[in-house]
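Table 4 source record.
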Amino acid sequence: MGLSSLSGRQDAQSGSSQSQQHGPPYAPTNASLGGLPTVKLDVPITSVFLGLFLLGAIGHMTVFQVNRKHGHNFVISGAMFGFCMARSVACIMRIVWANRPRSVPIALAASIFVLVGSVIGFIVNLNFAHRIIRALNPKVGWHPALKLTFIFIYCLVGISIALLVSFTVASFYTLDPAKRRNTRDVQLYGSTVFAVVAFLPIPTVLVALATGPKTGRENFGVGTIRSKIILLFYGATLLALGAWFRAGTNYLTPRPASRPRPDQSKACFYVFYFTVEILVIWTYLIFRIDQRYHVPDGSRGPGDYSKSVFYEMETAKTGMRGRNYSFTSSLQPICEGPVIY
C-alpha cells in the first residue's frame, strides 16, 4: 500500500466521504500504490510472491544454520531471512485484506508491513558497502569517523521507521485535516530517507574506488573484489529503483481512491515492491553472499580482512579452484566451499 494513501490533502469529495465514515479507525480516502487488493486478481499474484518469499526464507535460514554449525557466523543470512519473512507477512496480510476489503485494521496492518519490510535490504547493502570500502581503502574504511557515520545512518533509519509507523497508525484514528497533513509530511520525509539510503551504497563504493590507493588493497571472503562490487551494485540498483519510484509517487498530488493515477496501478505495485525485492533475495542466495562477503571474526583494523584471503589461497592450492559452483553442492562453511572468480 502506498504512503500517499494513508494521509494527505483531501479534496471536496474525500472530505464529504470522511464525514460519513464510521470509526475510528477510518479508511484512507486517497488512492494508493496498488489500490484495494481483490480476490480475483491480487490473491493469485500475491500467493506466487508469498511462495517465493517463503522459499527464500528457507534458503537463507538453511545457509545460516549450516554455517553456524561449522563456526561460520554470517548474521546477514539471518537478516535476509528476516527480510523474506517480513515480506511473507505483508503478502499474507494483503491476501486477508482482499478477502475482507472493509476491514480497516487489516488494511492498516498490511500497509505497515509493506511500508517497512524493504528497509532490511537497504541495511544489508550498506553493510556490504562498508566492508568493500574497508577493503579498497583500509585507512579510511577503518577510520572511527566513517564507522560513526554508518552508525548514524542506521539510527536515522530506525528513527524514521518509528516515526512512519506511529504517524501512519495515528492517521487512521483521526479525521483532522491538519493532523493528516502532518502525517503526510512525515511520510514524505520517510520515503525520501529510504530512497537515499537505498542508493547510498553505490556512490560510497564509487568514491572509494576513485580515491583509494592502488596498492595496499585487501580482499575478503571468496571471489574477487570486482565480483563483490558488481553484485552489490546489482542489488542496490534494484532496491533503489523501487524506493525512488515509491518516493516519487508520494510527492505527487494525492488523488481520491476512485481516480488513481497510472503510476498507482497494480502492475507498478508488484514490480516496484515485490519483483525487485525477490530478484535481490534470490540472487543473493544463489551467489552465496555468506561466502562472498564473509570477513574474519574479530576484524578491527587494516590487515584483518586479509586473513580470509589467505584461507582462500590455501583452498585454491588444494585443488578447489576448478570445481563447478552450485548452490546445492556448496552448503559448507567458507573454509570448505569453492573459490569463485
